[in-house]
Amino acid sequence: MPTVSDRSRLISIVQSRQNARVRELRAAFAQSGRDVSEVIGIEGEHLLAEALRSGLRVKTVFVRHDVERSSGRGPTRGTGRVSALRRLDRLGLPAFVPVVELTPAVFASAVETESPQGIAALVGPPRFSLDGALAGTDPLVVVAAGVQDPGNFGTVIRSAEAFGASGVLALPGTVNVWNPKVLRASAGSAFRVPVVYERSASIFDALARRRIPVLAAVQNDGIPCSQANLAGPAAVLIGNEGSGLSAELLDRAQARIAVPMPGPVESLNAAVAASILLYEAARQRGRR
User: Fold this and answer.
1) Which residues are within 8 A (CB) of 193 and not within 5 positions of it... i.e. 6 or more apart?
2) What CATH class does 7-123 carry?
3) pLDDT digits (tens, 9 = 90+) for 16-39
4) 130-287 falls under which CATH superfamily?
5) In whole angstroms, how large is the CA radius of gyration of the chain?
6) 143 touches 236 (CB < 8 A)
């Protein structure tokens, strides 16, 4: 069976930043809105492994052509390339996926991180729906109200998968799930957890039709989360890092819940609060 390291799999090394494939990769990383094209850009061996494990369609893989030095023998060309390709073999990359080799400068011009890992890819994103996120008995969802920090939102998605939530619903103003920093923070969970962007009215109407209570996470004057009913259907509403939840959103909630904090801390950030509430929901559901 042909492998990635078979030279017939390789497209000749690309040295131009204006190459069509390079431009496509750069554009995929630059997407900032909630509407994405047919492909998204991912970077790193771990995310590529997660994409493959999640059954996503991998369109093209890019590897950085490195020049490494062997001790005492001067520069040895191709050593870094072969190493990267062998790593792809270990991931089980399908034989039909093209592998494009880029010079270090071209690779760095197309990806987002300051210290690139040397592997990137174009993949087809999963498609999720609001109905799918709310399906099943006793759905548990996080409603992210303008969560803008990519690390926070990625962590919320990762915690949602870890604690068995059925989806994450993103209100307007929430960062794009395919933002490279969100993807890295989610550690691949964004490929599997339904993350759905809709207008506020659509989300709250859907929750009301399914009789899923909305529980607003607040700093003060909320029911301690251990006393709230998180064993049944629940939508946990998490606010913006800076301004929290607006009065309008608080009015849409059937109850307010809080994480008790005996220490002298004013508040928890969005990701920590969501993770604790999701853990509490999983604990209650486990007891049930």
Assistant:
1) 157, 160, 161, 165, 167, 168, 186
2) alpha beta
3) 778 888 899 999 988 754 555 688
4) SPOUT methyltransferase, trefoil knot domain (3.40.1280.10)
5) 22
6) yes
